[in-house]
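Handout, page 2. Input:
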Amino acid sequence: MTQKLSNTPARDLDKFIEDYLLPDTIFRTEVKAAIKRICDFLKERCFRGAAHPVRVSKVVKGGSSGKGTALKGRSDADLVVFLNNFSSFEDQLNRRGEFIREIREQLYAFQPEGHITVKFEDQSSWWFNPRALGFTLSSSLLQQEVEFDVLPAYDVLGQLNYTKPDPQIYRRLISECTSLGKEGEFSTCFTELQRNFLKHRPTKLKSLIRLVKHWYRLCKEKLRKRLPPQYALELLTVYAWERGSGDTEFNTAQGFRTVLELVTKYRQLRIYWTKYYDFQDQYISSYVLSQLRRTRPVILDPADPTGNVAGSNSEGWRQLAEEATAWLGNACFKRWDGSLVGPWDVPTEVDVPYQEVDENWSCILL
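Output:
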């Protein structure tokens, strides 16, 4: 499919997405049914015979399935199991392994009853303190296997009935993350916010995200190197659309080009959002501003200020930027007359509020 995308004229990119990247209806229905089966198992069956009472407050579908950006032929789902047994972020860190082992044992025993076959990932460090339980599920009702990651998490948000979480939640997160040296470790606790950040976006933006994800995977297959996280590219696509278009209908080639040009300027990227946290609380503000001062690229998780999803893989960004530069002259960015589609006018950094800061970044005046 490498040739197909690179040689697809700009005017045909929407058709390319429809033909090659959008999951078909039957496939979506099958995956949805498989996910429901595992969700029901986790909520109703999994911990029924546990030695100690285990309360599952909710199971949330994350990843591309939850956000509505899954690619054709890619059947994977992240299921976050929120447990009332965790009393803090540190508690989740220390105890998640015991719950993952319990889920594994119960899921293995559930196979005959559920008419499924489960194949677990082979992880040499699995019995120490795994973050997730990875497995593939197959059954006679599925045309292909579905890949799952099940992640236990601390239910710090509770029932979502507000636009912005209580700032106290982020104060606790920042305090525990910095004391433990585990920034970004607890993003699973904010899966609902990550999902909602993308879920209700325009259909065409989700199609553009699929195109960028496909391009990213082509790069990964070619380079066979560790690249920046795919989530960073997804957020970069949302940012490019917000700042460059904002319309439900737009030129796909123009949006695609904008994202790739931003990748080539990765050393200048400083991107964040204030949908779920902002600069009103002094403690949170101080921390977020310190995050934004870090070596670029900086792309803060819109749901978790402790997570710079751009990561620290400068070599990976350099290689991805080289690929992006090479792609910018391809047919997918050319009009019928051979001229190149121009990018949207999008800045590489988001302005930060004016601040006066002492040398320890502990006193901030906004």
